[in-house]
Input
Amino acid sequence: MPTAAAPSVTTRELTDRECWDYLAAREYGRIAVIRDGEPAIYPIGYAVAPGGIRIRTRIGSKLLAILIDGRVAFEVDDLDEHVARSVMVVGWAEQLDAHDAAESSTPVAPYAGADAHAVLLITPTRITGRELSLDAATVRSP
Amino acid sequence: MPTAAAPSVTTRELTDRECWDYLAAREYGRIAVIRDGEPAIYPIGYAVAPGGIRIRTRIGSKLLAILIDGRVAFEVDDLDEHVARSVMVVGWAEQLDAHDAAESSTPVAPYAGADAHAVLLITPTRITGRELSLDAATVRSP
Output
């Protein structure tokens, strides 16, 4: 039996519908931004809402300053022993005004804290998703 | 009982040692890069190795092209009902030559596939980590 064997992987692109269903069924992802010319990643709670992805953060926070009117990537993933899936939204983040924020059904993500009153909407310009399946029957030597 | 209550959150910065211990105990994270001027996130298997973080991908892959000699952020996180933790490494990714790659103990991350022969080293220039704890005793109304 080969010692460095790895299973073969089948990749499938998710449809837009599958991507949104995937996001709607979850509530915790990561957001990537460009900060001072370099990428940065922050885990964050979210909710799928009309128009895109809504997130909360503290007013005056460092993250808010980076996000406002900025190009962002938002990603959610999971994996188990057989399948790995990930969905990525690329878009623009903008802060909602008090009226729109008040109408928001965005849940208060627990780790955002009770003072996370700034609500942002990420408007997607692109959504992509992939599902990787391990084919245990075709384990082979590299 | 308030309907929009959220617990208060205590934030603690992790020490460098705690960050590395956290990374060494896990094997699955996300890498963020700047692609055509916008951020992008990819989930990826990894191993902590001397000098930084080692990852594998396919030779000739799109990800490899983006990563080589590029500024990257690498992040691992987890959360449960009480604590959320995340560690981020910012650094440079470079492809190891065949000799160094062969000496690598980097496991073949299953979802990288059997043909993931390109081994990259992310050399950290900065590592940061945070632990957020929910204080259930201080639940309050916003």
About this structure: The two ends of chain A are 12 Å apart (CA to CA). Chain A has three helices and eight strands.
